[in-house]
Amino acid sequence: MKCGTTASIFTFAYLYRIRDQLNGKLTLTAVSDEETFGPWGARYLMEHHPEVHGDCCLNGEPSSPLSIRCGEKGPLWLKFTVRTAGAHGAYTHVSESASKIGAKLVLDLERLSSLDIPPPGNVGEVLAKARETIDRAQGSGASEALQRITVNIGVLQAGLKVNMIPSECVIEADLRLPVGVEKAKVLAAVDDIVSAYPQVTYEEINYSAPSWCDPQHEMVGLLQANAEALGRTEPQAICSLGGTDTRLWRYIGVPAYVYGPFPAGMGAGDEHVPIEDFLHIVRTHVLSAYDYLTSP
């Protein structure tokens, strides 16, 4: 993320020096709340400063130099609350355990991964052709995960002490919806699962729809040509597992593409990007933005 932001800053700084040679306008956005999907970053700019919309968006979020991400899955975050009477741990006959019910619910939520919802238009074809690249760029198994709903239990809290039967269990689930999957269909499936648990209620705490744009857009061709000219493999257009702010541009019909470093180690200790990969991203962004803004 820091590498991508720096690449955007360098691109803006370099092209500003030759702005009189450009046929269009380059706008730089840099915000601090992308990771939390907060309301005061790109969302605020999109709503209150339409000059950032442009005709095309180029982003440097982690994607790998092997790929250009032209779409992404959509996060749907749900909070489940299990409530029971609770009791002393020795009196298991007195009350159900909220933690045990929560554990069963977590297992049942995995059924969402088996929902069969075919991708729309040419999305499936594009992803099928790029299957090997997707696994190389995002890790083995990524190509399969891209095309199904994934379920991550990010928070599970229950109990006050080992000898107490918990009266409450809170579960926060991070569902990632593939392109073409509608939230309403997923929530209907969640309702069906929860209906088996009268002790459970749930609420939606965050949602961003999946997004997708043209994998054959001019910017894709420019990124591919410049990456090859710089000695790298031609990157393929794919979809992203994680979310980025580029979705906001796609939502209003502006094509938005992500070309950045490998995501290996992202969010872990000692997060870093090899210097040569960083410099390659900067060069590719500068050249592609220049080509786009000087085309007839």
TrEMBL record:
<dbReference type="InterPro" id="IPR011650">
    <property type="entry name" value="Peptidase_M20_dimer"/>
</dbReference>
<protein>
    <recommendedName>
        <fullName>Peptidase M20 dimerisation domain-containing protein</fullName>
    </recommendedName>
</protein>
<feature type="domain" description="Peptidase M20 dimerisation">
    <location>
        <begin position="71"/>
        <end position="196"/>
    </location>
</feature>
<dbReference type="InterPro" id="IPR002933">
    <property type="entry name" value="Peptidase_M20"/>
</dbReference>
<dbReference type="GO" id="GO:0016787">
    <property type="term" value="F:hydrolase activity"/>
</dbReference>
<dbReference type="GO" id="GO:0046872">
    <property type="term" value="F:metal ion binding"/>
</dbReference>
<dbReference type="Pfam" id="PF07687">
    <property type="entry name" value="M20_dimer"/>
</dbReference>
<keyword id="KW-0378">Hydrolase</keyword>
<dbReference type="InterPro" id="IPR050072">
    <property type="entry name" value="Peptidase_M20A"/>
</dbReference>
<dbReference type="Pfam" id="PF01546">
    <property type="entry name" value="Peptidase_M20"/>
</dbReference>
<dbReference type="InterPro" id="IPR036264">
    <property type="entry name" value="Bact_exopeptidase_dim_dom"/>
</dbReference>
<keyword id="KW-0479">Metal-binding</keyword>
